[in-house]
């Protein structure tokens, strides 16, 4: 059985709702999903997973959240080379630039972006939940 990590940070619950939906999708597709808050994840855990999903909203000025998520991600990204990775998160008033920058960063790290990233404004609605179901199924087969 595939083992998928879902590592996330969420200030007001929107990205957390996405993480929960992704977890349901992964388990419904027959894989194991570990839902892990960003502060509880470290580089030495990467190897234990077949694929890793990372969720973080746009914060600062089109940045990852800087106190918890960014330091965690900076410490794990060198371990993501060759790993299947999926990105998701919620945003507010921007145009998704934080996610495009994050995808570029993952590609530069040598990660294999295993499914199209999923972003949504504020809380996930049905279209976003459907995209997360597809991504979860793809991760479960990765
Ligand atoms: C301090 C702060 C900075 C933010 N910066 C951005 C930003 O640069 N671009 C954007 O689109 N939304 C920005 N937002 C909006 C959040 O991304 C949005 O509210 C999102 O839904 C929060 O997700 P969460 O509930 O998972 O924390 C910011 C919100 C806060 C509180």
Descriptors:
4 helices; alpha/beta; binds flavin mononucleotide; 142 residues; globular; six-stranded parallel beta sheet; Rossmann fold; 22% strand
In brief, what are we looking at here?
This protein is α/β, with parallel strands linked by helices and 142 residues long. It has helices spanning 14-28, 69-76, 97-109, 126-140, and strands at residues 3-8, 32-37, 51-55, 84-91, 112-113, 118-121.
Describe the structure.
The chain has 142 residues and is of the alpha/beta class. The chain has a single domain, classed as 3-Layer(aba) Sandwich (Rossmann fold), CATH 3.40.50.360. Helix content is 36%, strand content 22%. It has helices at 14-28, 69-76, 97-109, 126-140; strands at 3-8, 32-37, 51-55, 84-91, 112-113, 118-121. Strands 1, 2, 3, 4, 5 and 6 form a six-stranded parallel β-sheet that branches. Helix 1 (14-28) links the parallel strand 1 and strand 2 (32-37). Helix 1 (14-28) packs across helix 4 (126-140).
Radius of gyration: 13 Å
- CATH class placement: Alpha Beta
User: What is the number of beta strands?
Assistant: 6
Shape: globular
The helix/strand series, from N terminus to C terminus, equals EHEEHEHEEH
What portion of residues belong to β-strands? Answer: 15-25%
Bound molecules: flavin mononucleotide
Share of helix, binned = 25-40%
Into how many domains do the coordinates divide? 1
How would you name the CATH homologous superfamily? Flavodoxin domain
**Termini distance?**
11 Å
Main sheet specs:
6 strands, parallel
């Amino acid at each position: 059985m595939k083992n998928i990590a879902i590592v996330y940070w969420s200030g007001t619950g929107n990205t957390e709702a996405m993480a929960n939906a992704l977890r349901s999708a992964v388990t419904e597709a027959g894989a194991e999903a570990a839902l892990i808050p960003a502060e509880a994840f470290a580089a030495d855990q990467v190897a234990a997973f077949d694929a890793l999903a990372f969720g973080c909203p746009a914060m600062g000025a089109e940045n990852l959240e800087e106190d918890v998520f960014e330091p965690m991600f900076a410490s794990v990204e060198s371990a993501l080379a060759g790993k299947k990775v999926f990105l998701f998160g919620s945003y507010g008033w921007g145009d998704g630039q934080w996610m495009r920058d994050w995808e570029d960063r993952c590609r530069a790290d040598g990660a294999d972006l295993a499914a199209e990233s999923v972003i949504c404004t504020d809380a996930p609605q049905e279209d976003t939940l459907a995209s997360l179901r597809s991504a979860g199924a793809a991760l479960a087969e990765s």
